């Protein structure tokens, strides 16, 4: 316990020279939360459609306000769908029949057809439609994981400067040392939670309850800490580990659909993405939004187990590198 308190105090003291970096990362994470709340309250366009008509005179004069339709005389290249410049290509023949080509799911295709045929209608609710809470978690996720790398700077510095050997030679607690770093990192995520509390008390719709947010933020934070700790243990240079970790965080969270929910209808790619803990966390947030969190608790258990495995591997590697040498 003494080691835990000493290391925790030392971490906060060593934060002072880096307070600007910590503040910048916190402001970015807070801004992402505010952006998610703002965008969730806006009128959402359900699709960007390239309408290809044999004759422009046959193009519909009345268009749904939920679709952004661009009338073209020829179909754009397939790559425009892959790059998400358009969500769908719609061909219109002289009889007024629509042919829809899209990379998204069949229910999305049905929704587009419904809005094209009924431009004044409200779009049908899709089972994969994201709510405010899922958007907030999605926007926060990448920055919370990246913050774990910047917040573990004390551990990274101790290892790079060769201090860990001296620390573990002393009559100190190995578990207390690591626990202090974990608590320190988690405490720096409090501003994001406090912002959600303020938004909730001000009457804004934030999707989930404060208790649910506490759990989701805690799991995301622990996932980020476990990834950061393992990379710092395996890679000698802290800067190299940070750059690699941030690159992984950005790529994995984007592929997991944290900012934009999409599907490429590619079974192999979908199965590869399914392995990512960020994807499972986003899936669980979606189930929780629909009141089915308990039924699909395996998703959140997978994320916790994934983080636990990485943390255990880091501990074993550290013990092998330092503790057992003594």
What features would you describe in this structure?
One of its GO terms (molecular function) is ABC-type transporter activity. It holds the Pfam family ABC2_membrane_3. InterPro entries: ABC2_TM (IPR013525). The chain crosses the membrane at residues 20-39, 132-155, 167-190, 210-234, 241-262, 297-315. The protein is α/β, with parallel strands linked by helices and 326 residues long. The chain folds into two domains: 2-41 and 129-325; 47-117, 3-Layer(aba) Sandwich (D-Maltodextrin-Binding Protein, domain 2), CATH 3.40.190.10. The protein contains 14 helices and four strands. It has helices at residues 2-13, 19-40, 79-82, 106-117, 132-151, 153-160, 163-169, 174-187, 190-201, 210-234, 238-255, 267-274, 277-289, 297-321; strands at residues 47-53, 67-72, 88-92, 98-102. Strand 3 (88-92) and strand 4 (98-102) form a beta hairpin. The longest helix has 25 residues, at 210-234. The model has no long low-confidence stretch (mean pLDDT 84).
């Amino acid at each position: 316990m003494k080691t835990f308190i000493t290391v925790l105090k030392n971490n906060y003291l060593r934060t002072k020279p880096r307070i600007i970096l910590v503040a910048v990362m916190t402001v970015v994470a807070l801004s992402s939360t505010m952006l998610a709340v703002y965008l969730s309250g806006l009128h959402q366009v359900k699709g960007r459609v390239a309408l290809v008509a044999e004759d422009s005179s046959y193009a519909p004069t009345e268009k749904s306000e939920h679709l952004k339709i661009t009338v073209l005389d020829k179909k754009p290249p397939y790559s425009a769908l892959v790059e998400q410049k358009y969500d769908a290509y719609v061909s219109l023949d002289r009889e007024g029949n629509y042919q829809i080509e899209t990379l998204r799911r069949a229910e999305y295709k049905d929704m587009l057809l419904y809005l094209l045929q009924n431009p004044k209608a409200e779009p049908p609710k899709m089972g994969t439609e994201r709510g405010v809470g899922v958007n907030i978690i999605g926007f926060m996720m990448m920055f919370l994981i990246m913050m774990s790398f910047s917040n573990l700077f004390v551990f990274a510095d101790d290892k790079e400067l060769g201090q860990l050997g001296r620390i573990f030679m002393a009559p100190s607690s190995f578990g207390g040392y690591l626990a202090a770093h974990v608590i320190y990192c988690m405490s720096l995520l409090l501003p994001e939670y406090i912002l959600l509390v303020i938004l909730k008390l001000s009457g804004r719709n934030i999707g989930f309850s404060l208790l649910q947010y506490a759990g989701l933020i805690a799991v995301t934070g622990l996932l980020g800490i476990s990834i950061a700790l393992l990379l710092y243990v395996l890679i000698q240079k802290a800067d190299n580990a940070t750059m690699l970790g941030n690159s992984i965080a950005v790529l994995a969270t984007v592929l997991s659909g944290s900012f934009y929910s999409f599907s490429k209808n590619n079974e192999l790619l979908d199965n590869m993405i399914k392995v990512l803990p960020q994807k499972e966390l986003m899936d669980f947030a979606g189930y929780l939004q629909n009141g089915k969190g308990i039924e699909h608790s395996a998703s959140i258990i997978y994320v916790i187990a994934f983080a636990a495995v990485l943390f255990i591997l880091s501990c074993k590697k550290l013990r092998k590198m330092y503790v057992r040498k003594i």
